[in-house]
Amino acid sequence: LSLLNVDEIIDKYRQKLDKLRHECHTTVDRFYEEKCQELQQCCVEKIGEKRKKIHELKLKTNELIREQDATHMTIFAH
Question: What pLDDT score does 40 carry?
């Protein structure tokens, strides 16, 4: 084997390795983007649920305040 043949063989396998590396990076990037989207969606859903719960609590609090005011006015009206 001449030195030239060895260099050609090394170059050939290095190209294959470079291609594999590129494909792996592409796969990792795709996976990363997918997980980022899943995280975003999960956070939006959780925040939506929390906002809905807060809204329900505000409505209930207002209802209780109105009931208390009505009871208070009834007591002092007699």
Answer: 98
